[in-house]
Amino acid sequence: MKVLRITNSNDVTPGATTSRPALIASVLEARFGEPVEMVVKTAWPNDRMPAIVGKWLDEERPDIVWLGINPFWFNYPSVPLRLRRKLGPLGDRLARLGLDAAANPVIGPSRPFRLARNLLLRTVGGDYHFEPEEVLPRIEASIRRILRQEGVVLAVWGPFGRSRWSVTRAQAAAEQRRQAAVVAALERLARDLHFAYAGPARPSTSAAKRRSWRPTASTSAAATKPSPSSATPPFSSRSSKRSAAPSPDTPELAPKPQPC
Fold first, then answer.
1. What SS3 state is found at 182?
2. Which domains does the chain have, with CATH numbers?
3. pTM of the prediction?
4. What pLDDT is attached to residue 104?
5. Residues of the chain with pLDDT under 70
6. Nearest-CA neighbor of 189 among 234, 231, 226?
7. Region entry Disordered: which residue ranges (predicted)?
8. Which of 163, 157, 143, 161 is nearest to 199 (CA)?
9. Contact 179, 203 (CB under 8 A)
10. Which of 56, 76, 108, 255 is nearest to 175 (CA)?
11. How many whole angstroms separate alpha carbon 148 and alpha carbon 146?
12. How much of the chain is in helix, strand and coil states, percent to nearest 5?
């Protein structure tokens, strides 16, 4: 069995204490009694995402596709991003300083740095990488491309997350509205196209809450093969190449969530 896991950079970050893809593969092998090949790709929801997802399908020909929806895409308020958008070249230089500090293994996790980041979020504010209205059409186009691949079972997961990025009530309320809009749209799409989907309408800040959450009838659909209409024919070539890391064709690696 071959699984294409379209995920985020947490699954491929060097030095991670746990390999989620390896754990998932071992669970599937125990459940189905056959070897599982796990191909991991990281996606960024720009306008190239659907085409590159199609290229991965062409190359890998998986049996199962797991598509993770990352709340970081549309719910992470970034101070450096706001500085870049508001201050031009000066903002870009300031943003680079902030990102470099956040990436520093000593400075980034430190309490003073986090306090400074929270203060900037309260005063300067942060911009989101994407709006839900930008992300959803690209996700839908990617899903339709996956479902056109004969014999593939699709599961869509998220947005889940245990990080609390907002520091004000207004930011938290916006985060909840944005996530609810994404989940509602994906629930409708899952019902229309008949793929399995699970995602909470409210952002989760607790790992225990995330573990205890279960999809309901309204948040999941039978993983049956639909025939969505599209003028684009499925890819015909096949490749058995295996990849445990992002390929050079990845649209843009999602920046690892950092306190900046």
1. helix
2. 2-75+130-219 (3.40.50.1110), 79-123 (no CATH)
3. 0.75
4. 82
5. 14-18, 162, 204-260
6. 226
7. 200-260
8. 157
9. yes
10. 76
11. 5
12. 45, 10, 45
